[in-house]
Amino acid sequence: MRELDRIDRSIIDFLQNRGRATNVELSAQVHLSAPQCLRRVRQLEEDGVIRRYAALVDPEALGYGVVAFVSLSVDREKAKGEREFERHIRAFPEIVECYTISGDFDYLLKVVARNLKELSGFLTDRLPQVRGVASVRSTICMEEIKALAPLPVGER
User: Fold this and answer.
1) Considering the entire predicted model, what is its pTM?
2) Strands 66-74 and 133-140: what pairing?
3) What is the DSSP letter of 4?
4) Nearest CA-CA partner of 111 in 125, 131, 127
5) Domains present along the chain, CATH in parentheses
């Protein structure tokens, strides 16, 4: 990945907080002409620095009143393969984030559910059906304090 300069970092910092800003607004903020700014943004997108643009939606507005973090261990002999296992995990819409981790578990999942009964059904009936799941431990989120914060973009 190429080294990001001060202007790239300014563009990223602004877009993390104002993803719907126009190119004219962005160019004024970072002190570039609109064409130069657009070229830089497109390059950041092509390089994969800017992955995508999205609307951040309040889960409760869609009826998801429960958020849980689920630690999961895999029995690699029973799993058909790590990528096959991960394909199954990606298919569950309730799993909104998934990370491989070090420590006592192999994966950390962020799961949303409408209520505790729905979460329980997912954790006891559906998730364990994935071939290779050895153990599951869940922690229910009581309150969100800080979520999806912009990445720090300071100079290097």
Assistant:
1) 0.86
2) antiparallel
3) P
4) 127
5) 6-46 (1.10.10.10), 59-140 (3.30.70.920)
Q: Which two tokens stand for residue 5?
A: 């300069």
Tell me the C-alpha distance between 63 and 75, whole Å.
Answer: 34
Query: How is residue 23 written in tokens?
Result: 């190119």
Question: Which of 115, 141, 92 has its CA nearest to residue 133?
Answer: 92
User: Per-residue confidence of the chain (156 residues) as pLDDT tens digits?
Assistant: 789 999 999 999 999 999 999 999 999 999 999 999 999 999 999 999 999 999 999 999 999 999 999 999 998 777 777 788 899 999 999 999 999 999 999 999 999 999 999 999 999 999 999 999 999 999 999 999 998 888 999 765
Query: d(Cα 131, Cα 84) in Å, to the nearest integer?
Result: 9
Measure the CA–CA gap between 90 and 97, rounded to whole angstroms. Answer: 9
